[in-house]
UniProtKB/TrEMBL annotation:
<comment type="similarity">
    <text>Belongs to the ABC-4 integral membrane protein family.</text>
</comment>
<feature type="transmembrane region" description="Helical">
    <location>
        <begin position="226"/>
        <end position="253"/>
    </location>
</feature>
<feature type="domain" description="ABC3 transporter permease C-terminal">
    <location>
        <begin position="63"/>
        <end position="177"/>
    </location>
</feature>
<keyword id="KW-0472">Membrane</keyword>
<feature type="transmembrane region" description="Helical">
    <location>
        <begin position="155"/>
        <end position="179"/>
    </location>
</feature>
<protein>
    <submittedName>
        <fullName>Efflux ABC transporter, permease protein</fullName>
    </submittedName>
</protein>
<feature type="transmembrane region" description="Helical">
    <location>
        <begin position="102"/>
        <end position="135"/>
    </location>
</feature>
<dbReference type="InterPro" id="IPR052536">
    <property type="entry name" value="ABC-4_Integral_Memb_Prot"/>
</dbReference>
<keyword id="KW-1003">Cell membrane</keyword>
<dbReference type="GO" id="GO:0055085">
    <property type="term" value="P:transmembrane transport"/>
</dbReference>
<feature type="transmembrane region" description="Helical">
    <location>
        <begin position="24"/>
        <end position="41"/>
    </location>
</feature>
<feature type="transmembrane region" description="Helical">
    <location>
        <begin position="535"/>
        <end position="562"/>
    </location>
</feature>
<keyword id="KW-1133">Transmembrane helix</keyword>
<feature type="transmembrane region" description="Helical">
    <location>
        <begin position="283"/>
        <end position="308"/>
    </location>
</feature>
<dbReference type="Pfam" id="PF02687">
    <property type="entry name" value="FtsX"/>
</dbReference>
<keyword id="KW-0812">Transmembrane</keyword>
<keyword id="KW-0813">Transport</keyword>
Length: 664
């Protein structure tokens, strides 16, 4: 083919794309959507008005996920394309077109698909970024001064990233063609798998890894442990899913083949025998569908429930409307704090309600039987950690409106999530008799969903509170200058306000400004003041959850589509032979339906099982984000699963019809 006109490569490339439109069009559409989604996220993350807080962090995290997804997914879908094209390329090779000319033709094809995908993706990205910007503003749920802008840097980064991905996929395709001989290319997509062996070790590995992942999900009690071990469980379940789909599915199909009453039926014989020979490649696709489906369900259900439970989250995080924490409880500081609260609430015309003021030694400690270790060393689990509050009896009697008395070696104990249940307690080097274990306390209700268990200890006087905290901070590795500035005993004021929202907010902002500047070091917290930052975080998480959920959903649909198309071409000759030996079209259709149903819904069923087992550990993780409303999360999860299952069934109906068109 010497002296070939250069324009012929362009003509051949366009003809090839047109002739292979069933596989090329979905690939190009997916590439366009991926380019669009990357540009939109990059542009939003670079928007100056987003700031440097939690929202920008969330957007940058999502951007990283999209980059990894784009590389893996475009390579994965490209592998379907090149598999289907091998026979056609083999024909070109047999007719005299050298591999160098085929490489040029493939390069032109790649340039066309890459150019079209990047150009259209960027155009739609710029158009739809305004819509996504408005959606984000709506989700954030409050007035924020964010301005829409087209980012030239994002455009450049998008072009560079996807040009590199398409270049790598082209390189992969050229290597595939270069290493294959014409006969292999002619057999291409039709070369069947040898009957795979039943891999006992891989099956055992799959059972063990999924068992470990499930055990972590079920056995984890502490929210902090859930955060630490969740990703270990995720990796175990992913590895186990791939192993069981690859080895376990083959073992299952061989078991079905041995069951003569099941196997020797027309609809079962063809589907089971065919799937055994292709299960090696089929299993990876099914496992991918299962993992992607699980990711969609987890991301959408958790982020929707976080956003829907915003009121519950704020109530959990801020039990009272306004809270002052003075880290050095001096008489002057306590008196000035009280004066500022009185002056500013009176000035704003609001009334103080449910005011609770007390001194407390606050520290992290380790609860080991009847001993509370104040040093921060030792090999203890997260479930042994407690947040210890040591309160003088005088303050306890004041806020509880009681007249309790204690001996010098006696204490009251109250735990928020469990029962202490012992007669004595040793805190550091001091041992106390438990005069009484309290069933309730004004400061905090019983609550098993705390990230870290809180223990309240009421001691006879302030001097003992100081001695315990001195010992705790003396054993600490914290910076001495920091602890000296902070002091060891805190003064905490908690209160609600009655009045219009505008007046209450005005009073709280004034109190915060004055207390933090005049009574140092102090921190003021308020539900009303913090609501913006919470909507920034949880609204951002919802936006990213839905955004990435749609992206993974797109990947799931395309993998399902390519799997069905690929199997349709693989099965075409086999079903034609079956029809020639007497199998009618009705039996063919019934056999197809049997095969598709047997395999198609398995990933969805396994994904739902994964979600059901992970539900408990996910509730623990959500507790670290202050969502303790389990019924709400359960409702969101069930709705997400039902909607996804309906969508999955629709995809099944469409792809099964395409499959039948090919084989028939």
């Amino acid at each position: 083919m010497k002296g070939v006109n250069k324009s012929i490569y362009s003509k051949l490339a366009l003809t090839n794309i047109k002739n292979n439109r069933k596989t090329y069009i979905p690939y190009i559409l997916t590439a366009v959507l991926t380019v669009m989604m990357y540009y939109i996220m990059d542009a939003l993350a670079r928007n100056k008005s987003v700031g440097d807080g939690s929202l920008r962090l969330c957007l940058n995290y999502a951007l990283g996920v999209i980059i990894v997804f784009a590389v893996i997914f475009l390579f994965y879908t490209n592998s379907f394309l090149i598999k289907r094209r091998k026979k056609e390329i083999g024909v070109y090779n047999i007719l005299g077109m050298g591999k160098r000319h085929i490489a040029k033709m493939l390069t032109v094809e790649s340039l066309i698909t890459a150019g079209a995908s990047i150009a259209v993706g960027l155009a739609t990205g710029v158009i739809f970024s305004k819509l996504m910007y408005l959606v984000l503003l709506k989700i954030l749920h409050y007035k924020i001064n964010m301005s829409f802008e087209i980012s030239p840097v994002s455009v450049a980064r998008t072009i560079l990233l996807f040009a590199a991905i398409f270049a790598l996929t082209l390189l992969y395709n050229l290597m595939q063609i270069h290493l294959a001989n014409p006969v292999e290319l002619l057999r291409g997509g039709n070369q069947g798998e040898k009957e795979p062996k039943t891999k006992i070790l891989l099956t055992i590995f799959g059972v063990v890894t999924i068992g470990i992942g499930y055990y972590i999900a079920i056995a984890t009690e502490s929210p902090l442990e859930a955060l630490m071990f969740f990703f270990v469980a995720v990796i175990c379940v992913i590895l186990g899913t791939y192993a069981l789909f690859t080895a376990g599915s083959i073992a299952l199909l061989k078991a079905l083949r041995k069951n003569k009453s099941f196997y020797y039926k027309t609809k079962h014989f063809t589907s089971v025998s065919g799937m055994i020979y292709r299960m090696k490649q089929n299993a990876v696709g099914l496992a991918n569908i299962c993992i992607l489906s699980t990711m969609v369900l987890v991301m959408v259900s958790t982020t929707v429930s976080l956003y829907a439970g915003m009121d519950d989250i704020l109530n959990t995080r801020f039990p009272e409307r306004f809270r002052v924490t003075n880290y050095a409880a001096t008489e002057e500081g306590m008196e000035r704090t009280g004066q500022i609260i009185s002056q500013e609430t009176e000035k704003a015309g609001v009334t103080v309600k449910n005011k609770v003021a007390y001194r407390s030694g606050e520290m992290s400690a380790i609860l080991d039987g009847d001993k509370v270790h104040l040093e921060d060393t030792g090999s203890y689990g997260m479930s042994d950690m407690v947040e210890l509050s040591v309160i003088p009896l005088e303050d306890y009697n004041t806020f509880e409106k009681k007249d309790v008395s204690l001996g010098d070696d006696e204490a009251l104990i109250y735990m928020t999530g469990r029962t202490y249940g012992k007669d004595t307690i040793q805190v550091g080097s001091r041992r106390y008799k438990v005069a009484r274990e309290l069933k309730d306390m004004v400061l905090e209700r019983k609550n098993k969903s705390n990230v870290v268990e809180r223990m309240y200890m009421v001691v006879p006087d302030l001097q003992q509170t100081v001695k315990i905290t001195d010992e705790a901070y003396g054993n600490s590795t914290m910076d001495d200058a920091w602890t000296e500035r902070m002091g060891n005993v805190r003064y905490i004021v908690r209160l609600d306000l009655s009045g219009s929202d505008e007046k209450c907010l005005s009073a709280m902002k004034a109190m915060q400004k004055q207390i933090e500047s005049e009574v140092s070091p102090s921190v003021c917290e308020s539900r009303d003041i913090s609501v913006e930052s919470f909507y920034m975080l949880y609204g951002g998480l919802l936006f990213i959850g839905i955004y990435l959920g749609l992206m993974f959903l797109m990947a799931t649909v395309l993998i399902i589509y390519y799997k069905q198309i690929s199997e349709g071409y693989d099965d075409k000759e086999r079903y034609q032979i079956m029809q020639k030996v007497g199998m009618d079209k009705k039996e063919v259709k019934r056999s197809i339906r049997s095969q598709v149903l047997t395999v198609f819904f398995l990933p969805l069923i396994v994904a739902i099982i994964h979600i059901a087992v992970a539900f408990k550990v996910m509730t623990k993780m959500l507790a670290t984000l202050n969502l303790v409303n389990v019924p709400l999360f359960l409702t969101c999860t069930i709705i997400t699963v039902v909607v996804f299952a309906i969508f999955y069934a629709i995809v099944f109906a469409i792809t099964a019809r395409e499959y039948y068109k090919i084989v028939n």
